[in-house]
Amino acid sequence: MNDPLLAISAKCRGNAPCLFEGQDMFLEIRITNNHDEQIGFPLGFVQKTGPTIRLVDLRTKAETYLRTNLASFDLREKFTQIQPGESVVLEWVITGDELKQFGGHNVDVSAEIIVVAGIQVSAKRIEFRGSNTLRIVSKQ
User: Which residues is 135 bridged to in the sheet?
Assistant: First the structure.
């Protein structure tokens, strides 16, 4: 689900098919301005807290939400301006241990990456929620 103002896309950095080899998975989460004017996004705040990530084992349907971090509330008011058609990238890591809880080294999970933030559009504060899903599978 994406807000029409911003689009969320995610990929595994340097590992387009998101093949799990027992190591940490480095994510690049791209936030793109789909609006016709600039949007203020609290990138520093979201980079500290992280996205909400829901992992679902595609075999057993077991699921868990990964822990987010605490960040200074002051960072919520520091906006990175995203021009129309431009993007910012949020980097995040899903640790190998967080993935191994679903079958050790034989992983087949869906990772729903959810970004929630108060954004600024036309000097107004708007709550944004967008998501994208990746499939992470063990390398055979």
Answer: 110
